[in-house]
Request: fold
Amino acid sequence: MSLTREQILASQLKTRDVEAFGGIVTVRELTASEALALRERAKTDSLNELSAAAAWIIATVVDRETKQPLFTEADTSAILQLGNADINRLCQEALLVNGIGDRNQIEALAKNSLANRNGDSASDWRNGSE
Reply:
């Protein structure tokens, strides 16, 4: 089925429910302009891996019903104190719902993140590059 201009412009952003922190957390697809801004911020602000993870969570985690963001930049420090496994899971799902890589690539990047912390080179998931 071929879509019309109006149908395309009226399309809804995708969301995905993720098991984390003992419950369900909803992550959403970013608009093209939001994704570009986040990638540019990762490049220009030289975000470290932890700050980039928090930025993805702030940008994509929303209330399941209203689709409004649950977090703001003021929550960065608190987010970074949360469990690593759940943070990684949310980041992986946020990347997937935003069309950045496939599940195998994302899981490989997550495994390589420890190597990054030790100074080894690996793919940079912060801005969606491989």
